[in-house]
Amino acid sequence: MKNFLLILLTIGCGAFLFLGNMYWQERTAVSSSEKSPLRELEPSSAPAEKQGIPYSNWPEKAQADYKDAKEKGEAYKLALVGSLALGEESNGWSVQLKDALEEEYGDTLEVSIFQRDTDSLHFTNGDELDEVLSFAPDMVLYEPFSLNNNSLGVSAEDNLDSIDIFQRELTEANKDAVLLLQPTHPIYGATYYPRDVEKLKEYAEEKGITYLNHWKAWPSDESLKNYLVDTQDTPNEEGHSLWVDYLKKYFISEQE
After folding, report:
1. What pLDDT score was predicted for residue 60?
2. Are 193 and 233 in contact (CB under 8 A)?
3. Domain count of the chain?
């Protein structure tokens, strides 16, 4: 009798252990199946919120205002302002950039070119500035006649003062307007002109103005002349192409 009870106890313990093991395996399987969908969601796109947004390089103020204008169904206005180096009459960088931006942004972005054959002092004190302000731009890419100033004897200090005037007038016309600065194209063999441009860059850094330093895309040796007309006053076709490629990578960041 004792042996019979011992056998029954052994069988009962074995059954208990077997059933307990089965129960544990089922719970583990259920737990795994419940967690697996969470693992699939782990690769989040949150850190790359700006991925695929072509204006992600713009100043934050410009990004916010463009997005707001777009949501309201209004066109955000960009003015391209500067000297004959813009190449408006010869399919220069300004025309090519305008075409590229309108193709990318459609009617949400309105681009206007203001090319003037003058220096920065005459620009800020003449009708040319009023013409820009009448366009009511939200953002301005300004090439402040750096090369013309150097040729006509306008000092770097006077040029910077003229930029102060331009920005003040621009802000009075539109308190949300954003100013971007860039130099005119480089030229080969210059001594004082690069110094003036360096002061322009330092000014932009001090004032917190975005400075588009396209000079780093140009050759620094004698081959630079291959990108300019003979007088070096303006870029040639290759120079305009080089210049606009740099600017497109800024204004349409997905091309980078």
Report:
1. 97
2. no
3. 1
